[in-house]
Amino acid sequence: MLKNLRAITIQGRCFKNKVTLELFKNLDDRVSLIYGRNGSGKSTISKGIKFAIDEREDKDIDVKFIDSNAIEIPIEDIKDETHIFNEEYIDRNVRIDDDALGTILLIGPQVAFQADIERHTLLREEAKKKKDHLEKELIKYQDPKNAASPEFYLDKIRQLLRQPNGWAETESKIKGNKQNAAVTDAVIQNIYGLSPFETLDELQSSFESTRKLFEQVTDPAITYKPVPELDEFSEEIENNLIELLARKIDEPTLSSREQQILNAIKEGRQNDIETVRDYFLNPDISYCPYCYQEVSETYKATLLNSIEKILNKDVDDHKIELRQVVFPILNLNFEEYKPLNAQLVEQIQVKLAQCEDIIKTYQEAIQKKLNNIYKPVIVDKKLLSKSICELSKLIQALKACKSEFDAAIKQKKKIQDRLILLNKKIAYYAIKDLYNNYLIQKEEKAKKEADYHAARQSYSDEDKEIQRLQAKKSDVSIAIDLINNALEYIFFSNERLTIELHDGKYYLKSKGANVLPKNISQGERNIIALCYFFTQIMENQEAEKLFQKEQFIIVDDPISSFDFENKVGILSYLRYQLLQILTCNTTSKVIILTHDLSTMLNLYTILEDIASSVKSDARFPNITFSKLELKDNAIYDFQKKHNEYLRLLNDIYDYAEDGPTDEGLVIGNIMRRVLEAFSTFVYNKGIEQLTNDPNIIASLGDHSTYFSNLMYRLVLHGESHYEKQIYSMRDNVSFFGYISDIEKQRTAKDLLCMLYKLNPSHIEAYLPEKRKIIQIKQWLKAIKTDADFKLEEKLRCSKKVIKLYDYALSAGQGIDLMDEQVPYEEIEVDNLSADFAIKISGDSMEPRINNGSIALIKQADILDDGHIGAFYYDGAVFCKIFRKTKTEAFLESVNKKYSPIHLAENASFKIYGEVIAVLNSVNH
Questions:
Q1: CB contact at 8 A, 487 and 525
Q2: What topology does CATH give the domain 799-919?
Q3: Which among 878, 727, 880 is positioned nearest to 816, based on CA atoms?
Q4: Which residues, 6+ apart, have CB-to-CB distance to 815 below 8 Å?
Q5: Do residues 835 and 859 touch, judged by C-beta distance below 8 A?
Q6: What angle do CA 186, 189, 195 make, to 5 degrees?
Q7: Could you give the CA distance from residue 485 to residue 497 in angstroms, rounded to a whole number?
């Protein structure tokens, strides 16, 4: 299948659009030599092929293999034969470590195992730190005297329930016990579980009335007579009375004497007239009762006729109707019922008085009408019937109390039980807040315990995993003889660098002696990786059949700038491996990518030599290869003429102007190589000497401080082969591996500015485009001068040390923030106005103040409306917006899901101060 491999399609990273790259120009080509400048996409190609054969789902580079008929080759057909050597392979398969004896070499699977061991070691350390921290945290949750402990609140609840006239004493009195009731956890839980719907005032009122009833029913001396009954008085009777009083009696036609009689009646002397009539009706009377003169029978008869004419039957009937109106008898006494229900008795007495007043008004009206029967008496309706009805209801209620009392005597135990329940409900309000705090801290404690057990389990799991990985790592077997042979081939010596196995570890030796890790160069590490790469390909193959299996090999930059010292040996080793691969199997193919022009030309020479050496041997077919250049996302035929210094200088400018590319990881090497060349050609010095040469620093003028630092950073970048190597002991990451793409881009700009500052004509000659020089001058203007650094130094001296309290706001633990028991640490801040700082807990002030932030507080006793501050209120600490009006004050959250906290007048409240700045906890 490899015989027909012709091209790849690729999309991703620097290949924004899908392109086809013809890697083998001729169908019979066995090798593709590809030259590409840094950033052209070489690494993208090698990584993309790796992603393809690994069939990664999360890949951001998509590569397809295309045959000579433009048909896609299935991955399954070539994945087992494909081997890729690049930076990632080196990182995955070779690592330098050390112990007390010397340098340990981790190769192949050992690297992954060691990486896993170190990762799990870090996880174990983190788990241990977390476990130890949580163990310390648990102490305060287990200390009953600490407000973080749930027992702290249970103790307060017990004290509250046991205090004089508290629940325990009241319970014992209700039950008639001599000792106070026991306050157990079950009792506390039972009280809190009641959660009454009645208010505290309602419960206390009900308790008092029930207590009195209980005292009464338990006193055998207390008895009550039946409650008096009340006569009815309907609204119809009242309406008839008002109608009778207002009724008008028609006056008869009268003589003058009869008119005098009527006038007397109208003047209110009706009783006198009736008395006269009754007097003269007596047949034995014959004289006037006033003047004692004789009165004839005729005179008596005519007088009686006149009186009867006025006081006729209608008048008599009307008077009878008036006298027949009967009012309820209200002469009732309810005093003895006051112990039963004093409030109800008082209401009855008030209503009785009201009814008596109405009856008296009606009776006076009736008498007035009887005294002057012909004159209507108009009276407003006094609603006596309604008042009598209301009085009757009150009396009925009193009767119900009496019945309840009578029943209560029979149900004393139920009253006692109700009294006990009411006592508990009242106690609920006393312990509610404390028990809520208990539940909160109990939950917090449970979380801490769960976190602690989880951390302890995590620590144990990580420890077991480390032991498992160490066992697997020690089981890995490496063909060190083959690698040592390869190393001897490259270094032309069997002592220069060798690998020896001792106690399950592979030690790196030089001339038989241990080598310190710091003396192992990056180039030597790369060489070991290259040797292991070709050794790994031969794994599980019989010696006589080596390289006979079809292979597809991709080698990305086999000789980097680290390896120039051993360039001849590496090229010789590559020649040997290429000869074996190309001659032992007629379909194996190789792709070699490089950014170094000299390496490209050397490999070109090697391949021509291999092709020439087998040309006359009938056992082997002719070997042809493609010589290509990758640029602008396309493949071109390779051109031999290149000005490398000019190209590298333009690479730096492009990176400075356009930003990171796919090859951004090697921009540090490019910058150092240019600076090396510049310092050599212009000053005949190494770049380390540029940092301390007074004449060169003087040439930098008022930017000398900044550019001296820049040169020092470039010296730290250990990718050059011209001067002493800078070694990485463990992770093999250079200075530029620690900085961001933005920082690399800024360094590229700074380098161009520094070279222009030192030698403007030199830069103008190599970057002749006017726009580029204008751009460099613009970049130069933005660089700090020596005066700026002096000012920054002064500003750095302006610091202040303040206390950072380790007490989460809104914790609600009832402790004043300034209490001595609240822990704190000292921190250094730039804000000289800050008096202390507090850690923020919760999202109530988001998005203005995030959870985990640190608030800087300027101490103050008062705050203006709308200012954010730290406060102590009713047993809790808050960070809120302070609000006040003419009538009230309250604390407001930024997050609207939290309701305002209204400040009660009698609650404890303190203003700590105003929040003047907020620090991110990560930055802190």
A1: no
A2: Umud Fragment, subunit A (2.10.109)
A3: 878
A4: 147, 807, 821, 822
A5: yes
A6: 145
A7: 10
Helix H or strand E segment including 576: helix 567-584
For the record, the structure tokens of 574 come out as 């590559």
Q: Convert the pLDDT of each residue in 731-784 to its tens digit.
A: 333 444 445 677 778 888 888 898 888 888 888 878 888 899 999 988 988 887
Return phi, psi of residue 892, to 5°: -120, 140
β-strand 513-514 against 505-510: which pairing, if any? antiparallel
Q: How far is CA 178 from CA 163, 170, 172, 417, 861, in A?
A: 16, 11, 7, 18, 51
| Dist CA 757 CA 701 (whole Å) | 9
Instruction: Give 335's contacts (C-beta < 8 A, 6+ positions apart).
Output: 345
- Comparing C-alpha atoms, which of 849, 151, 815 is closest to residue 444? 151
Neighbours of 917 (CB within 10 A): 15
Angle between helices 167-175 and 412-475 (to 10 degrees): 140
Cα first-last separation, the chain: 60
Instruction: For residues 132 and 135, give the distance between their C-alpha atoms in angstroms, rounded to a whole number.
Output: 5
Three-state secondary-structure class, residue 893: coil
CATH 2.10.109.10 domain position(s) in the chain: 799-919
Rounded Cα gap, residues 480 and 532, in angstroms: 9
pLDDT at 730 over 50: no
- Asked whether the CA dihedral 900, 903, 904, 906 is positive or negative, the reply is positive
Q: How many helices (H) and strands (E) does the chain have?
A: 28, 24
User: Among residues 830, 875, 856, which one has the least CA distance to residue 913?
Assistant: 856
| E strand spans, 405-531 | 498-502, 505-510, 513-514
Residue 525: name the closest of 46, 42, 93, 84 by CA: 93
Task: Using the Cα atoms of residue 703, residue 705, residue 708 and residue 710 in order, give the sign of their dihedral.
Answer: negative
Strand partners, 601: none
Whether the ω angle into residue 660 lies within 30 degrees of 0, i.e. cis, is no
- For residue 276, the Cα-to-chain-centroid distance in whole angstroms is 107
- Report d(CA 107, CA 467) in Å as an integer: 19
Q: Supply the pLDDT for residue 430.
A: 93
Question: Which element (helix H / strand E) includes 902?
Answer: strand 901-902
Q: How much is the CA Rg of the chain, to the nearest whole Å?
A: 56
Q: b/e for 874-883, b at 16 or more Cβ within 10 A? A: ebbbbbbbbb
Task: Find the range with the poorest average confidence among 385-399, 507-521, 804-818, 899-913.
Answer: 804-818
d(Cα 244, Cα 366) in Å, to the nearest integer?
9
- Is the domain spanning 2-108+478-637 CATH 1.10.20? The answer is no
Chain CA centroid to CA 310, Å: 102
Alpha-carbon 130 to chain mean position: 20
- Per the listing, tokens 């923020």 go with 840
pLDDT at position 257 over 80: no
CA-closest candidate to residue 505, choices 528, 475, 534, 485: 475
pLDDT above 50 (res 563): yes
What's the longest Cα–Cα distance across the chain?
Answer: 195
Contacts of 43 (CB under 8 A, 6+ apart): 86, 87, 556, 662, 663, 665
DSSP character at residue 328: P
Q: How far apart are CA 130 and CA 452, in angstroms?
A: 8
Where helices occur in 224-265 by DSSP H, the ranges are 235-246, 256-264
- Look up residue 233 and give its two tokens: 């008085």
Q: How far apart are CA 901 and CA 709, in angstroms?
A: 55
pLDDT digits (tens, 9 = 90+) for 144-169: 999 999 999 999 999 999 999 999 99
Q: Where in the chain is the domain with CATH 3.40.50?
A: 2-108+478-637
pTM: 0.45
* Closest C-alpha to 424, from 121, 616, 743, 206: 206
